[in-house]
């Protein structure tokens, strides 16, 4: 995936989100009688602009697509003709200003619901939440969860899909205690508690790997179908058709076992036994280290298997089909759940339960946008919906300079009957600039470290 593709994908991702955010401010402002001067997508030098002859509003596209703004008539930003004073933003009641400012983040949340609704409309064939594998020496193994157990609830939340199950677990990131799991075992419900300590604080594992239970996965023989020309395996003598039978003396039952060991062994020498022409051949191979989008390093051999036609047992399958109204309800529920997760993560980050290295900036967003675009329109739309939720929630944070900071001032004004003093607002502006600047620098630093 080249840089140009990532940049285009990022623009296609962020452009609509920024445009619709600013449209929320713009539309409500005009409906409430406030005069809009400029509607801009992006910051910096103007690339394209035109002016409406009817309204006099200047619409423009600027060079840096990392934000946008709606400039309204305001006495604090310049002289306003006497006949235009009733249309100035600062002359409006606090409740009108609250509506205008809140409209941006809220329309992002509504847009996310719309995108999720599109994704939920088609029938979906997927795995149900029946356990396909229990990892040894994990919390799941310690409480005797078994292959075939169907997970019904996590911490009291119903989990009809693996996605819902993962969301329920992500809410426990950074915590120490117990995760309550309700399972169906051959028609009988059973409650178990999985012990966690600083759960996923270092983000090196998925929630399911950390707890030790995985979805069903088909048996794929550990036979090498293809070798990368510059991979570690081909350099150390591995050949197409080799069947990997053991790594460091541990028997490999299928291809997933191989992937699990290799990914967990970056830059570590592995003793690999392969079956070649009915004979065991001993190889020593060191997987290359490869960083993912969150900066975690995994091992890569440079080999591919022949997946072939995958057959999934009926007891592990389910088809989910929603009516348009049901899909809307599920989309709304998912948006609310994601919003809660984001707020919960921010609180835990402030409390130190989650590391600041989880902050991501524009480089990581561009990489993920590019990868999701390569995976298909549904994955891309799903990521766009997630980013829309994030944009809406982050803008509602009570930080000066953000929409949430302005809302705090206007709510105080509505309650007190008079505006917050200019001195306090200026102090808040400086604090907000420092906070946002520090967060942006940290996010960029994390991006570069992941590279």
From TrEMBL:
Tell me where it resides: Membrane
Q: What parts of the sequence cross the membrane? A: 98-120, 375-397, 427-445
User: Which coenzyme or cofactor does it need?
Assistant: Zn(2+)
What range(s) does the PDZ domain occupy? Answer: 131-158
Q: Does the keyword Zinc apply?
A: yes
Protein family per UniProt:
Belongs to the peptidase M50B family.
Q: What is this protein called?
A: Zinc metalloprotease
């Amino acid at each position: 995936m080249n840089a140009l593709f990532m940049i285009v994908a990022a623009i296609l991702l962020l452009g609509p989100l920024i445009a619709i955010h600013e449209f929320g401010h713009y539309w409500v402002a005009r409906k409430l009688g406030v005069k809009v001067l400029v509607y801009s997508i992006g910051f910096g030098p103007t690339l394209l602009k035109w002016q409406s002859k009817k309204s006099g509003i200047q619409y423009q596209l600027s060079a840096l697509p990392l934000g946008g703004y709606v400039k309204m008539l305001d006495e604090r930003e310049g002289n306003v003709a006497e006949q235009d004073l009733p249309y100035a933003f600062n002359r409006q009641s606090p409740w009108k200003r609250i509506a205008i400012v809140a409209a941006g983040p809220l329309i992002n949340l509504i847009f996310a619901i719309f995108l999720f609704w599109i994704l939920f409309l088609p029938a979906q064939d997927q795995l149900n939440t029946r356990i396909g594998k229990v990892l040894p020496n994990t919390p799941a193994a310690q409480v005797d969860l078994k292959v075939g157990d169907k997970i019904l609830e996590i911490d009291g939340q119903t989990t009809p899909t693996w996605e819902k199950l993962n969301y329920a677990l992500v809410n426990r990131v950074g915590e120490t205690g117990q995760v309550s799991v309700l399972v169906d075992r051959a028609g009988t419900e059973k409650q178990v508690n999985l012990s966690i300590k600083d759960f996923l604080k270092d983000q090196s594992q998925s929630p399911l790997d950390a707890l030790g239970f995985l979805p069903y996965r088909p048996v794929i023989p550990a036979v090498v179908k293809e070798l990368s020309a510059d991979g570690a395996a081909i350099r150390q003598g591995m050949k197409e058709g080799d069947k990997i039978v053991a790594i460091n003396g541990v028997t490999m039952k299928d291809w997933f076992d191989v992937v699990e060991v290799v990914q967990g062994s970056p830059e570590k020498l592995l003793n690999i036994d392969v079956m070649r022409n009915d004979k065991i051949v001993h190889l020593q191979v060191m997987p290359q280290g490869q960083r993912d989008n969150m900066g975690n390093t995994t091992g890569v051999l440079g080999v591919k298997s022949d997946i072939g036609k995958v057959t999934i047992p009926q007891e592990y399958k389910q088809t989910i089909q929603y009516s348009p109204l049901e899909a809307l309800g599920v989309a709304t529920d998912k948006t609310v759940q994601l919003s809660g997760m984001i707020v919960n993560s921010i609180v835990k980050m402030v409390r130190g339960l989650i590391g600041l290295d989880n902050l991501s900036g524009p480089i990581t967003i561009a990489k993920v946008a590019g990868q999701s675009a390569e995976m298909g329109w549904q994955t891309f739309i799903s990521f766009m919906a997630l980013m829309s939720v994030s944009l809406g929630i982050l803008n509602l944070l009570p930080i000066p300079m953000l929409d949430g900071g302005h809302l705090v001032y206007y709510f105080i004004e509505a309650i007190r009957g008079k505006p917050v003093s200019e001195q306090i607002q200026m102090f808040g502006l400086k604090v907000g600039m420092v906070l946002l600047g520090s967060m942006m620098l940290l996010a960029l630093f994390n991006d570069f470290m992941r590279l």
